[in-house]
Amino acid sequence: MVDLALVLHMHQPDYVDPESGEAILPWVRLHASRAYYDVGRLLEAHPGARVHVNLVPSLLDQIEGYVEGRVRDRFLELSRKPAADLSQPDREQILRSFFMVDWETEIRPVARYWELLAKRGPDLSRVDLPRLAKAASVEELRDLQLLFNLAWTGFSLRAEEPILRALFEKGRGFDEDDKRAVLAAQERALRALLPLYRGLAERGTVELTATPHYHPILPLLVDSDCAREALPDRPMPERFAFPEDAREQLRLARESHARRFGAPPAGMWPAEGSVSWEAAAIFAGAGTRWIASDEGVLFRSLPAGSPRDLLYRPYRLETPAGEVAIVFRDRGLSDLIGFSYAKSPAAAAVQDLFGHLRAIGQGASGRERPLVSIVLDGENPWEHYPESGREFLHRLCEALEREEGGVTPILLRDRLARSPPTSTLQRLHAGSWIESSFRIWIGHAEDRAAWNALGEVRRLYDRARAEGASAAALDRARDQLLRAEGSDWFWWYGDDFQTDSAAEFDALFRGHLAAACRALGRPPPEAVRRPISEAARRQRAAAGAREPDALLHPVIDGRVSVHGEWAGAGLVPAAPSRGAMYQGEPPFSLFHYGFDLERLYFRLDPGAPVPAGLALALEWHAPSGQGEVRFPVRPGASRGEGGAVGEIALSDILEGKIPLSALGVGAGEKLWLAVRLLSGEVEVQRFPANGLLELEVPTRDFERIHWKV
């Protein structure tokens, strides 16, 4: 009925600081003992699932660097250091960074980890970190060192390592030997990864694909002005047009893949699904057989009003450099796995996915069997699933192996060899899988400043070459420039996405440019010497979040009944993304909250039409306990389901209130909460996007303390 091409994209940027040779962020090592290892072992156990795994060379370089001892990891060194020997800066860094894991799936279920987070406080902006670090006991710090690393082990490693299960049961009071055991398990996973994926490729049950070496937005390297096609009115940086860099990124990737897996990849996932006609010609000229992008790119390449079933077929691109096939991912199905199913029961989620696939097959109008492409991040989603996605992924692979509902998993290299594309695409829109544009990487003033800095150093390189710089100097500078062309630096510039590591990403990008200048014996230009990103210093203000500064007395009727009735409320804007992946328009744009002396009030402002059938779940945690209150989201007034206390009303806005007594908190006490919007059991939005919102119940002095003219 349907052929399914499932592509899991594995990627990390180059975290190695060009000055120190140290990996300043730990995500390669930590994902290696979780998602990368889990997926490899899973596919080994389910060869009939026939899945594509896209391995970015910059990730593989770092994995090899760890295995060969060439990569030093700042977080690993902090983890290895005996807790009794930690300096004050070490202590502060551990308290700042060793809660960087999904709080819902990995911290809240572990009593000791949750206790340590509560003691530090969820909101770093309200924490006296030096004081807490100085006061922390050796036992607390050692437990935190171990629990952070233990949380980043996945279901496969936990199943294979009895010591990991024993440490989960032990729960607290760990010793240095316990800590060394966890780090040794992580090292074993790192060493196993490349042989594991090489074996999968050799057996032919998995198709390994790649991305240009340092994950650049290839069309922007060819000619940054191609961004104008989707963004004609957006300011652009000084034109960056170095197609030779695009060809070099692709050449390096194909050579890397051949060295590690025996042959160049047949197919490639362009970074962020980014394509243009000129970039497609470069892929074709290098011998790539197929590439993939997003459905939005397809429908902007076809005549307006083209039917949706045109998505479910491969296309042929006939470029001056040769022919290449292209497929386009189903965005909705990809995002269901990437974002929504994490909060759903695994069996229901898999059943829902295959229901969508069957519907596509039943609705097909052509004679050719539909080809559905699902492409998604292969590492980040599983952090938000219970047990790192163990049950969901196993059920998914089992359903694929038995070809449930007539859904046949295929490898694109085989399908395209057997049935070459019969449809030719006459033009290819220049865009990515986000908004079918390159706005995320070039549309913000910070992005443009970064492109201008990159272009300035790239032109400096050309001048140095023309002036006779040595081959060795040019090679070193070229390497650093290629690293600086990666997409991730531009991803985190601007205010589209938020990260606690904005300063590190900015420093790495500018560090690569500075290293290129040093290799050429030239001083780095001013644009490289000064920070580009403001996010590290102004993150909370830039997000628009604020705390309550007045008591509230709103009427809960779904309207702003009285001017200023929500004045003084706290605010949390909707997150533009979930984790490191992009999600579409959320139903609500802003969350307001506050108190009078007896009740918690909350309000949600719609940012898009509110879908029918939603439920609102208010999850709360207090010193006396925890719980959840659910409300059906429908026009008019609603009480909490099951007779629970509290009420909401939906009309122009959604408003609600709950007595503080029902939450078990009193004046001056802490309360942590999250508001989740659910469709069935699928979470579609959350405030805050990650973790919990920390509140303090007001006392009678609250308004006097916050009084202002």
Mind explaining what this structure looks like?
- The chain has 709 residues and is of the alpha/beta class.
- Among the domains are: 16-198, no CATH class; 444-542, immunoglobulin/albumin-binding domain-like, CATH 1.20.1430; 544-705, Immunoglobulin-like (Sandwich), CATH 2.60.40.
- Helices cover 42% and strands 18% of the residues.
- The chain contains 28 helices and 25 strands.
- Strands 13-16-17-22-21-20 form a six-stranded antiparallel sheet. Strands 1, 3, 5, 10 and 11 form a five-stranded parallel sheet that branches. A five-stranded mixed sheet has the order 6-7-9-8-12.
- Helix 1 packs across helix 11 (176-203) and helix 4 packs across helix 7.
- The chain is globular, with a radius of gyration of 26 Å.
Summarize this structure as a short list of keywords or feature phrases.
single chain, 709 residues, alpha/beta, immunoglobulin/albumin-binding domain-like, Immunoglobulin-like, six-stranded antiparallel sheet, five-stranded parallel sheet, 18% strand, globular
Number of helices: 28
The biggest sheet amounts to: 6 strands, antiparallel
Shape: globular
Question: Looking across the biggest beta sheet, what order are the strands in?
Answer: 13-16-17-22-21-20
Structural class: alpha/beta
- Strand content bin: 15-25%
Report mean pLDDT, rounded to a whole number. Answer: 91
Oligomer: single chain
Uncertain runs are 539-544, 576-584
Distance between the termini: 69 Å
The portion of residues assigned to helices is 40-55%
Radius of gyration (CA) equals 26 Å
How many strands?
25
